[in-house]
Amino acid sequence: MTDFTRRSALALPLALAATPALAQALSAADRAVVAKASAYLQDLTEAKADFIQTDARGQTSRGSLLLKRPGKARFDYAPPSGLLVVSDGTMVSVADSRLKTFEAYPLRQTPLALFLAREVRFDRGVQVTRVSRLQGGFAITARDGRKQTPGTITLNFSDNPVALLGWNAADAQGRITRVRLIGLTKTTGLAANQFVLRDPRPKGVGRAKM
After folding, report:
1. Of 25, 34, 66, 150, whose CB count within 10 A is highest?
2. In the Cβ-directed half-sphere of 208, how many Cα atoms lie within 13 Å?
3. 170-178: which pairs have CB atoms within 8 A and are 24 or more residues apart?
């Protein structure tokens, strides 16, 4: 997998993590919109959806998403992609069955930690730069307030009822990965073993160094 392709794949969970923080320059009306989105996301403790992801080169992939806060998420990419991305509450693991690769990152070192926290915080880390009104909804554009992660993320919501429709993630070069959620619904009783992903390879065989 090329670095660009892997960045496109990782844009899905990392984009979802970029939950916006309030920017002081926003108007009172904009802050009210962000507060409405924040309350919705905080209440989204268990959910499932399908997704369609389109990278900057127009390549499309599909899959399914499971979410179980705090700490857990699962992104299953449908064939021909071999990607599976899982957060178990401590680590975010990325397995590619086609390339037989496996990588793992501490959850706390990824933006995913923001969204998967027990209490979603909107007063630190990420800054909202724009709130846009759309037909039947709104969009919130945010960036890393600490400027440690380049690029921006735009979260798209319906307005009545409020629901996350998807997001557009732009990297430092302006390349955009678009994700559209299909049938996002709250659920309950997601099994713990769905959020466990271990390196299937024998020890010492191509293991990524952490």
Report:
1. 34
2. 14
3. 171/7, 171/11, 175/4, 175/55, 175/56, 176/56, 177/7, 177/8, 177/11, 177/12, 177/15, 177/53, 177/54, 177/55, 177/56, 178/53, 178/54
| DSSP letter (8 states) at residue 195 | G
DSSP codes, 116-142 = HSSS---SSSEEEEEEEEETTEEEEEE
Between the alpha carbon of residue 202 and those of residues 91, 105, 206, the distances in Å are 19, 19, 9
**Mean pLDDT over residues 79-93, rounded?**
90
Query: For residue 118, which amino acid is it?
Result: R
Peptide bond into 79 cis (omega under 30): no
Residue type, 149: T
Tokens 């993320």 found at? 153
Task: Output the pLDDT for position 210.
Answer: 37
| Dist. CA 13–CA 31, nearest whole Å | 25
Domains of the chain: 3-188 (2.50.20.10)
Structure confidence by residue, pLDDT tens digits, 113-161? 656 777 665 555 667 888 999 999 999 887 766 655 567 778 899 998 9
- Do residues 112 and 37 make contact, with C-beta atoms less than 8 angstroms apart? no
